[in-house]
């Protein structure tokens, strides 16, 4: 047994095993510290492919790996599946939800973001968001069950509402979900039903702002819209949602009857940030110092989606590469402090912006270099599979995608868990 | 749209998309009937590999496929995801749980078995059984969470109880679970924990009768026991369980503290059989006529684990090959009835008995021909992968197993869903 808690080395507590937390832990592998990695789940999740689990293309284990398996050879890390209730940066103490404490010398808070309903939490049960594997399986169940119920009902209005899928939010996740939904309806389910034609389903993407994928240049947004429409998605921009209930979505004067509504519109920072006792920005994120430390608490850092920081005068986006870079920077800062050296400013290195839309449809922007369509899709595909953790996962994902590509079949069309509306 | 319900052909309703129901539907592909296949799930499940999902070796979608995808080309079948509440064999009517009715000319009831706790339903929450994918994911969560909690606790008694896994029932499922659990503890998790050594876990197989795998000859039972012990399982025979609670298992005077107890001891027929209004055997199964019809109701059939029938003077076992043969026989009988020909007796063709125990450990009995150890394991592996539905599934399962074989890693070690005891 290698009980790192016995060693008299500085104790680094990392909260959250996402990109920021995991990359920080790895970058500290040969540092003179003992690390405790806390996560409420047992796995690191490759979030960029989460929409594929939601849309039945991949299995949950294809895009996740146990944190302790990833870190097994790094002997200075102890992984604990625990949920954190609060962090006291002055006392340098973390409190777990069961009341136990863990003291630290340095802490990294990297618990990311969750979905936010802009003060309308009552929408949550009707319009699930996509952040965890459980969210993805919930969405998968709703999508597949809607087609099953449409086949079973004789009520034509109900059938139409069951075959209407409204996705709220035209960012990368909303675009991915809408494009894939359209492919499922038009191709995957073709010929499998006797009373309905899934190709007559309506997939609607509702965006409050003037264009989809607003983090890209306007011409790429326009190309994304055209690609979505080509796949069969109805794209509505400038349509903020007024309300969502079990019957559908209200946009302005128009009510869209839709039994399946998916939420890809708002994210809010993890509520753990509030326990730090420092000012937060409007999205609930911690405005950190340039070395990613919490203002007034140089031993406590925030990285990933939970951190609000500027680089070269521009806000760092909430994407995986930024989270990894921040994680590594925190590791460097801790190392520097231990060596009595000054900390450096975090600088975000922007490798470009990618968004996938559907089969052979994507947009890519790297500086002034832009790409859309099939070539962009291949670029996106290889970039994502390459970054998946684990050789086996890469192989399985490629196999599933090759299969899906040639057959239009999706490998994971299995409804798991109880349908909350099964009683109807 | 091909609405088979409009066609004026005899209507065959098949309840349950397991081996019996699916094989019956396929065998009726060119018969002059219209078929409605009802299942409360959306998938056919390859039950023989369910223990691999429970023990994190395979993903749920690896061993399941949507019923409507399997049957997409068979135009005389409508698949509906519906739960059946009752069957009235005299009125030839099926009632769904939402109150709607479906009338039939012929019906096949093939809803199989569920786990039974011999009148101790209060054991269910502490000792889950393994029949569905949701059961498997629940068991997976319990097993993986037990190791996580053992790592996190400082209470040595609690840690020992968390690292004790008791499997109740020494039939094929109990043996598979125990053997695989031992492999996980000894090999898969090796080196991943800092406070515990998973290899010190205790895996116990508790069998009430005098030997494990009692459907095999005694010498093979003995070989199975030796192989289990070699893998690190403690096999206790002649030890009926007196009680199970959240603390552990009571066997005779002995209390075994175990936080994870799995139930593989008893099955009971699906409760739908009770609605037929005919006498049932002790296990709740329907004692059918020799043509598999319900006594007094020649238009209603029972097949698979729910049917009690003799062949050559011996009871037909509740195994997948028997269910497939019964399903096909019911199809033949319906065909004969429609043609005005006499029905034939069902005869079970016994292809032998296989049980897997763990890595390179299995027993096989085909008539007088017996095999155990590595060769039996290879035989079992190929037989099972060969019978998996779908080329993709076979490929993915082989890939996962090849990976697992060389690395001892299991591909699906992801905890999904809320842990019911997460609050502790």
Question: Can you walk me through this structure?
Answer:
The structure is a homodimer. With about 425 residues, chain A is an alpha/beta fold. Among the domains of chain A are: about 5-40 and about 80-115 and about 265-340, FAD/NAD(P)-binding domain (3-Layer(bba) Sandwich), CATH 3.50.50; about 120-265, FAD/NAD(P)-binding domain, CATH 3.50.50.60. Chain A has helices spanning about 20-25, 50-55, 65-70, 135-150, 155-160, 170-190, 220-230, 320-340, 375-385, 390-405, and strands at about 10-15, 35-40, 45, 65, 75-80, 85-90, 95, 100-105, 105-110, 115, 165-170, 200-205, 235, 240-245, 250, 255, 260-265, 265-270, 285, 295, 295-300, 305-310, 310, 315, 355-360, 360-365, 370. In chain A, the strands form nine sheets. Chain A has a six-stranded mixed sheet, covered by helices on one side. In chain A, strands 13-12-11-17 form a four-stranded parallel sheet. Chain A has a three-stranded antiparallel sheet with strand order 6-7-8, with no helix packed on it. Chain A is globular, with a radius of gyration of 22 Å. The model of chain A is unreliable at about 1-5 and about 420-424 (pLDDT under 50).
Q: Which helices and strands, and how do they pair?
A:
The structure is a homodimer of 424-residue chains.
Chain A: E1 11-15, H1 19-27, E2 34-39, E3 43-45, H2 50-54, E4 64-66, H3 67-70, E5 77-81, E6 84-88, E7 93-96, E8 101-103, E9 106-109, E10 113-115, H4 133-152, H5 156-162, E11 164-168, H6 172-188, E12 202-206, H7 218-231, E13 233-236, E14 241-245, E15 248-251, E16 254-257, E17 260-263, E18 267-269, E19 286-287, E20 293-294, E21 297-302, E22 307-308, E23 310-311, E24 314-315, H8 320-338, E25 353-358, E26 361-366, E27 369-372, H9 374-387, H10 391-407
Parallel strand pairs in A: 1-2, 1-9, 2-5, 9-21, 11-12, 11-17, 12-13, 19-22
Antiparallel strand pairs in A: 3-4, 6-7, 7-8, 10-18, 14-15, 15-16, 20-21, 23-24, 25-26, 26-27
Helix pairs in contact in A: 1-8, 4-5
